[in-house]
Amino acid sequence: MPIRVQMVRPAAEFRDAMRRRERKAYDQWKADFERRGCAAMGYRMEGVDLDRLCVRHLTDNLRVVVAFLSREEALIIALGPHDETDRRMNIYSFVYQAAECDVPTGKRTKPSCCDTDGFPPVDAELAERLADNIRAMEKAMRRRRS
User: Fold this and answer.
1) What share of the chain has pLDDT > 70, as a percent?
2) pLDDT at residue 118, rounded to an integer
3) For residues 40, 44, 50 and 54, what is the CA-based torsion angle, rounded to 10 degrees?
4) For residues 45 and 51, is the Cβ–Cβ distance under 8 A?
5) What is the model's pTM?
6) pLDDT tens digits for 4-19?
7) Domains, the chain, ranges and CATH?
8) Helices (H) and strands (E) in the chain, counts
9) How far apart are CA 54 and CA 110, in angstroms?
10) pLDDT for the residue numbered 139
11) Distances in Å between the alpha carbon of 106 and those of 47, 72, 103, 127?
12) Which of 102, 96, 105, 104 is nearest to 137 (CA)?
């Protein structure tokens, strides 16, 4: 079942600024994702509500985080590096901030994105709330720069 993909603006801006190798990995993943849906994702995040977000490693430390609006439509919530030594370069910190929750501690289990029937974890309300929060975060950043 083909997937329609949307992106929040910060993810689209990051995609547009990618170097060739990263962009190639992203484009290959996106084509696969549009074709196979959650099967093209890696694992689910952890945390209250966030276990409905799926992650895929693209290259080195580059990650993409997706929320499913329906079985046929997904929203790229975040796209960027994962660097545990620099909070500003940690995509997971960004997602947890947008979700207004703490980063979970302890060992992560990384369950599969698809459920046992092969379906994605659909939560349109979560996707829309995160997108709204990301827009608000982006607006606040622009104000600070002005």
Assistant:
1) 94
2) 94
3) -10
4) yes
5) 0.92
6) 999 999 999 999 999 9
7) 4-145 (3.30.2310.20)
8) 4, 5
9) 10
10) 83
11) 11, 33, 10, 25
12) 96
